[in-house]
Design brief:
This protein is of the alpha/beta class. The strands form four sheets. A seven-stranded mixed sheet has the order 14-12-11-10-8-9-17, with helices on both faces. Strands 4-3-5-6-7-13 form a six-stranded parallel sheet, covered by helices on one side.
């Protein structure tokens, strides 16, 4: 993300995202943002198909062919194809560092000057500029990926239950390891709930099938750091980890795993094409699910300014097919857990959960709320160790 929930933001803000129901216009709920309740009651006017012009702000370049930006761009392409938009109706601004407010604002203003009336900002650090420009340009739709700010009118945010697929991939990793040491390259530390929640869900999956295994986390401190991600993976491999998972943007950890003759779990895109001999499976987003529903709602006049938060049920979150060399038991375990997730009988963060410092989170018979999962997971599951 990325970008998703910064250290400063998560130290000072209570995140509460509205649960998504498969379309950008399906939520009429409220959200708590910085102590304020915002009702989604958008007064935005619809935009005819031929009058649409969409700006997309990317933190890196889709041409990388793997990872976060690449996957978002696949979603934009899917939306364009399904809705029949012309190439001239999509304006991309690539390599916009989400730590440079001036560059972010310039990219968005350039889009607006070029006639864009919809802007998708895919990285967490783009949030504040979206908020600012949404006030200045009330007729432009601003949709921000991964953040927590919105105004219930022309500025919303979107994300999803990626932890569901993380859990499933943990099942595969737990069955694959021989050393009972599984590495995890993380972009951010425990102050970032989105990253930490993903680690915990993965570790819970590992623990379900292999209670003897531990998950060793190495933090890079950056969403996009090709060299640092590869180095972190290599350090984990050198310490005995024989499966490498990740929450970072590049395929570096997977290629490092393949080079070392160990296994891996990719993220964002299907990384088996980058490391076919290593990748057991990849945790993936299908951002086209959101982009299509969002733009369609703008065209049809059903946009209501709601935030979007969906998961496997809506098709936003997926897990690739298992590699032929995956442990044969993994498919059965994954299918059983997936069925429970889809029918709602299992929500990953269910019941009382033991942390790695001996504390207890949650309650028997209950599950953590979306707000807790997206904003309050600053703890690690019992089998996690930070290197």
């Amino acid at each position: 993300m990325k970008r998703l929930l910064s250290v400063v933001a998560m130290a000072s803000m209570l995140v509460c995202l509205v649960a998504g129901c498969g379309s950008a216009s399906s939520n009429k709920n409220s959200e708590a943002v910085a102590g304020k309740t915002i009702d989604a009651k958008s007064t935005m006017k619809p935009i005819a198909k031929d009058d649409l012009k969409i700006g997309v702000i990317h933190i890196t370049d889709p041409a990388e062919g793997a990872g976060y930006t690449y996957t978002h761009d696949l979603g934009i392409q899917k939306m364009q194809k399904e809705l029949g938009l012309k190439d001239s109706q999509i304006i991309r601004k690539n390599n916009v560092a989400d730590t440079d407010p001036a560059k972010i604002e310039t990219a968005m203003r350039d889009c607006i000057d070029e006639g864009c009336n919809v802007i998708f900002a895919t990285s967490f650090g783009f949030m504040d500029i979206c908020e600012k420009l949404a006030k200045e340009f009330p007729d432009v739709y601003f949709s921000h990926g991964t953040g927590y700010k919105s105004n219930g009118n022309n500025f919303n945010n979107y994300f999803g239950r990626i932890y569901q697929a993380r859990y499933l991939s943990g099942l595969a990793a737990g069955l694959q390891t021989k050393t009972n040491k599984i590495g995890y390259v993380a972009a951010m530390d425990s102050t970032n709930s989105e990253v930490t929640g993903g680690i915990d869900a993965f570790a819970m999956g590992v623990n379900k099938v292999n209670p003897e295994a531990k998950v060793y986390v190495k933090v890079t401190g950056s969403w996009f750091n090709p060299e640092g991600e590869t180095q972190a993976a290599q350090a984990l491999i050198d310490s005995g980890c024989d499966v490498i998972a990740q929450h970072c943007d590049t395929s570096g950890p997977q290629t490092a795993a393949e080079k070392a003759g160990v296994y891996g779990v990719g993220y964002n895109s299907d990384m088996s094409k980058d490391a076919p001999k290593a990748v057991i499976c990849s945790v993936m987003w299908d951002w086209g699910v959101y982009y299509t529903s969002a733009v369609k709602s703008i065209m049809e006049g059903t946009w209501d300014g709601s935030n979007y938060y969906a998961g496997m049920k809506e098709g936003l979150v997926t897990l690739t097919e298992l590699a032929s060399f995956a442990n044969p038991k993994a498919k059965e375990e994954i299918e059983a857990a997936k069925k429970q997730i889809l029918d709602g009988s299992f929500n990953v963060f269910d019941g009382e959960i033991e942390t790695n410092d001996g504390k207890k989170i949650g309650e028997a018979g209950k599950t953590l709320s979306d707000a807790d999962i997206t904003g309050k997971i600053n703890w690690y599951f019992k089998n996690v160790e930070v290197k």
